[in-house]
Amino acid sequence: MKVNWQQCFYRYYLFGLAILLFYPTLLRVSEKPRGVIWSDCEGYYMYLPAVFIQHDVHKMQHGSIVNTTNKDGEFVNKFTCGVALLELPFFLITREYAKQKALPVNDYFGNHYAYGIAIGGYLIGFLGLFFLQKGLLYYYSPFVTLLTVMGVFLGTNLFHYTTKEMGMSHVYSFMLISFLVWKVPVLY
């Protein structure tokens, strides 16, 4: 049985790229783990510790975001909870991991939570590329699809948001839109 290497390459190049970039991405995160959960990333993320650790969204402690309060002195988060819903599985897995390894579960700005969010954003970014690839293969050849997917990943800010600022909404939005690119033509 003869192996078609070209077909194998077109099928698995995204997986290979994800494996290739995983370690350098972890090195980028290890330089400053708290940098994963800061600014806007923190605003999206704060819903998770508020609900699962503090059990009150109005008593959240802030870090890098401006502490906005209402007339009763309760914390008001100006960010929506959509990204937090997509980060939820990775937060819960990290929480369980912290319990198993006797890490501080309530330290929601700890390195373990930063790595959980970082790995989650990284996987979501590549899932978005996979959905984009699947959607493009409906209309274009594998070679054109390869060039387009690699162009989108390497030629736009998606590379940065997949490998450096994984907590931002960009990779999650990209994944959802890519999912629509893949599935909407099937419906019509």
Task: Detail the topology: elements first, then pairings.
Blueprint: H1 5-31, H2 39-45, H3 47-54, H4 82-100, H5 111-136, H6 142-155, H7 158-163, H8 169-187
On the 0 to 100 scale, the average pLDDT is: 90
SS content category:
mainly alpha
Q: Give the termini distance in whole angstroms.
A: 38 Å
- How many beta strands in the DSSP annotation? 0
Strand-residue fraction?
under 5%
Low-confidence stretches: none
SSE arrangement, N to C: HHHHHHHH
Please give the share of residues in helix. 55-70%
Identify the overall geometry: elongated
Radius of gyration based on Cα positions? 19 Å
Q: Which tags fit this structure?
A:
8 helices, mainly alpha, 188 residues, single chain
